[in-house]
Structures are given as C-alpha cells and as structure tokens.
Amino acid sequence: MSDAYTRQLNDDLLRPLLQTSWRFYLLVAVLGSIVATGLGTWAWQMWNGFGVTGINNPIFWAFYITNFVFWIGISHAGTLISAILRLVNAGWRRPVTRCAEVITAFALMIGALFPIIHLGRPWLFFWLMPYPSERLIWPNFRSPLVWDFFAITTYLTGSVLFLVLPMIPDFALVRDKTTGWRHRVYGALALGWTGTPKQWHRLESAMSIMAIAIIPVAVSVHTIVSFDFSMAPVPMWHSTMFGPYFVAGAIFSGIAGLIIAMAALRKFLHLEAYLHPLHFQNLGKLLLLMSLLWAYFVFAERLTIWYGNEPSEIAVMNVTQRGSFAPLYWTMVVCNFVIPFTILSIRKLRTITGCVIASFGVLIGMWLERFLIVVPSLGHKYLPYSWGVYRPRPVEIMITISTFAAMTLLYVLFSKLVPIISIWEMKAGQHPAHASSEAVAHDAVLGETRA
Amino acid sequence: MSAVYALYPDGVSAQRAVNSLKAAGLGEDAITVVTGEPLEHYQFFETDKSTWMWYIASFGGLVGLAFATWLTRMTELAWPLNTGNMPIVAWWPNLIIMFEMTMLFAILASVLTLLITAGLPGRRGAIYDPQVMDGKILVGVANPRDAAAIERALAVAGAAEVIKK
C-alpha cells in the first residue's frame, strides 16, 4: 500500500473531525431544540401524570411501546450485520461496519428509554435491577419485562464494546495527527495504543469472540421483545412464530436505517470514494430478501389465524384489514413489500436513490407494523364490552418525533468526533489485493536471509 | 529508556530489517515492530499470535452461567411468589437470564483479556513514531546493548535514517 494512498485516506476520513462548517452548528442547533422540546414534554408528562397521553383502559401500550419495539428493531442494523459480515470475512464490509455499529448503540439507548418513559414514574426504574433491597424484594424473573432488562443490558454492553474496541487504533491516529486539546483527549482515548503485532492480534481475537457472542445475543434481544407480546393471552399476540417474525422485522428495518445513514454520510461528508454504489446494491439485495421474508411471515401469520377462525382473533384481523386500521395496514403492506420489491428487484432501479426510497418506505412500514401489533389487539380483546379506541395525544407525538431527532443528533455528533469509517480496517483491506506480489517479494527476502 | 529504530516504507523492507536484526544475534522478543494496520502476510507479524483469550472467554461464560443460576434460584426461593401457577424456581424463564449472563460475562472476559494482554491502557514506549500512521513500518530495539551494531543492521536493510532516542 502506498504512502500516498494512506495519506489520502487519513486526510479524507479525518476531515470531518478537523473542519467544521456553519451547517454543522445549524443542524445541531435545530436537532438539539427538538430534543430539548421532547425532554421538556416528557418532564411535563411526569409532572401531570399519564392522563395527558392517549393511553387508557384497555389500551395501555400504544405509541411508547410501538417506539420501543421499533427502535430495538433498528438497533439490529449494526452489530448483527457487522458481526455476520466480519465472521464471513466479507471484504466490502470495511467502510460499512462502523456506520452500522453506531446505529445499534444509539438506537438501543433510545429504545431502552421508552419502557422507562412508559413507567410513568421513571425514577423507580431501578426496581428492574436485581439489587439487594432492605425488604429483600427481588425482581420476578418470570416477568418478560425483567428479561428485557437483562437482554438489552447485555446487548447494549456488547454492542458498545464491539463499537469502541476497533476505534482505539483510530483514536491513536487522531492523536498523532492533531495538536492541543484534541491531542490530549484522543491520546487518553487511545489508551497508549502503538500498533505492535501483539496488540493487533489481541484486538482481532477479541473482535472475533465478540462477533460470535453478539449474534445469538442480538437474536435473543428481539425474540425477548417479542415475548413481551407472545407471553400474554391477547388475540393475535399469543403466537409461537412471534420470535422469528420480530427478529426478521428487526433486521429488515435495521438494514433500511443503515442504508439511509450511509447515504446521508456519503452525501454530507463527501465519502463517495469509500461508500460505493456496490455497498448500496449489496445492502439493497439484503433488504429485498428481508422484504420477502417479512411478506412470508405476514402471510403465514394471517393465514393461520384466518383458517383457525377463532372469533377474538378474527375480530382483530378484520379491524386491521377492513376496519378502522385498514388505511394504516395497507400503507404498511405497500411500504414494506410493494415499494421495496418493485424497486429492489429491478437491477436498474437498485441505485443509491432507489435503495434510499425503498428504505424510507420500510421505516414507515415497520413503524406502522409495530403500531398495528400493539394497538388493535389491545383494543379488541375477548369480550366486546372491554373494547376501546386509542388516539395519540400531542405529548406522545412530540416525544416520538424528538427520538428521531435524538438519533440523528447523536449520529451527527458521533461522526464529528470519531472517524465514521474505520481507517485502519480500510488500510488493512488494501493488502489482500497486493498479497500475491508481496508474497513473491517476501519469499525473495527470506531467500536472501537464508543465503 | 533508550531505543534505536528505523522506519521502512513497506512490509518487504521491514521484514528485511527484522531478518537483519536476527542475523545480528537479537532474539524475536528483543525486536519491536510497530505498524499502522495489521499486516497479516509477513513473518514479523506472526509473533505473539497464540492467546488464551478463547479459553478465558469460555471460562467467563461459565462464570456468568453459574452466577445467573445462583441469582435466579436464590432470589426466587428468598421471596417465593406464585406467578401464574408457574413453579417457584421456573427454569424456562430462568434460562433466558442464564443465557444473557453467560454471553455478557464471556464478552467482558474477552475485553478484559484484551486490555491486560495488550497493555491497555498504558504509556507509549520509547519506540514509537507518529509516521507509522502514514504507512511507515517501525522496526527497532529498546534498551540496546550494542547500539552501533543495531544501527548497522537497520541501515543494511535499507533504512533511509536510523533514529536514536
């Protein structure tokens, strides 16, 4: 690998850290204002109580739990995809992995916030933790909410470490390329990294172990989120297929989120030389596959319910497909299947723009899917006298909007502080192409030495 | 701490420098190589490859499994609460906690092993040059007994400049 290429790589990928335009401050100010409004709204909800939301008997789960499931699903973009690509040693993963892993960390943090918002009295959230209280009361391990706590904690810890460890060599690079306060801060973050073979081998071993460990954890997280529903005797929830159905949906929405994030980074940070159309095409194919899988799960679920003809389940099915939720249901089908299938199955349309349009469709569709799992079932339980309706109030809508702003804000700040593409992995990726010629030279050197 | 090192533009010349130092009588442990990225295709990168990390991670996982088994069972028996006619010690739900703790402890064990064995956090030694981040490969010796011989060996391998600290 030439020194010129290395310098070019360093310059291109460190530019966002070292140069700041006024647009960055404007974007941070706008997003920060929305997030601050969201936090203020949450404080207002805490002060006034849950009566300010649209949540009421019998629909106790609505926007907040929809958002919880949606964001945990988005989190499957990163660590899971990155770990799989790392294990199969896919060369094209190198510019993608960090962009993806960041989504996991932030989406999980935002997703995990929603059960806390939903508690009403969030300051008591520590009751989920197994701490030795003076009354010797422990969490009930038979409650799916406690499973969520353990699964999300494990996945968040693993994902953050999976993200941070490969950042250490890049922190060392920033340390060596900067002066003043940046040099000191990145020097501390680099933990004294130099780049000896021992350090590289240990880092790669740790990444391999974590990649193997994090895949089943990622699958377990969304399976456990699905258990929140399927463990309850509620029509259309009590299903054995909810685990794989939720995992497939999570990966589906996660890939869509990743494509949108990558397209934004490519455009605004001018990373055209690193995030190629090929990356979008490969992710577009994955998105198409997941769209087909999603359609298969929906068909299998609906057919089984329709064939079983159990009155309470048919009532929920009818209200979603033909009743008051029908506009949302058919929008979901169009967004999750018709649009991605049409765009992504035609090679000419599988461009960056095409992938982004399909991904926006999938994000809208998957949010609607979560909403349609939560609300119609709760509103149409077994006995018609207990049926109810739900209308979201401005509090819930504002908090929902602010989480999208929070995700964008965190992503923007991260890409300002850390190279969003792993520089050392990009450099390492240049070697296999030269391996054969270098191996010949290498043999010659060894020959010289032996002689 | 004193050091003698040189920077090389590619893996081939770095390998030549390592071979030259070995020919001068230095053992593998005495030679320091620093690179800006992993260079899997060279002999000098093969050092320190073996690790117990996989075993330590597995052991960490077993500790997590044992801890979760103890935690769930102990707490369920400490406050026996009948929930939906499930047994007090309900193994099906407990398996979820046991699985998560196994994985968490395995991950933490591998990260701790990485930090300890790679010397992180630590101070950068005398043998370091920021130019490695521009693609150069550093080959050198810390606390050399015969600095002149090492300088010669590094120069023979094609170093443009040998640096003494």
Descriptive account of the structure:
The complex is a heterodimer of chains A (451) and B (165). Helices cover 73% and strands 0% of the residues of chain A. Chain A is mainly alpha-helical and 451 residues long. Chain A has one domain: Formate dehydrogenase/DMSO reductase fold (Up-down Bundle), CATH 1.20.1630. The longest helix of chain A has 34 residues, at 197-230. Chain A is globular. Chain B has 165 residues and is an alpha+beta fold. Chain B folds into 2 domains: 3-49 and 132-164, Alpha-Beta Plaits; 53-117, no CATH class. Chain B has helices spanning 11-23, 53-78, 91-117, 147-156; strands at residues 3-8, 31-34, 137-142, 162-164. Chain B has a 4-stranded antiparallel beta sheet with strand order 2-3-1-4, with helices on one face. In chain B, α1 (11-23) packs antiparallel against α4 (147-156) and α2 packs antiparallel against α3 (91-117). Chain B is rod-shaped, with a radius of gyration of 25 Å. At the A-B interface, α1, α6, α7, α9 and α16 of A face α1, β2, α2 and α3 of B.
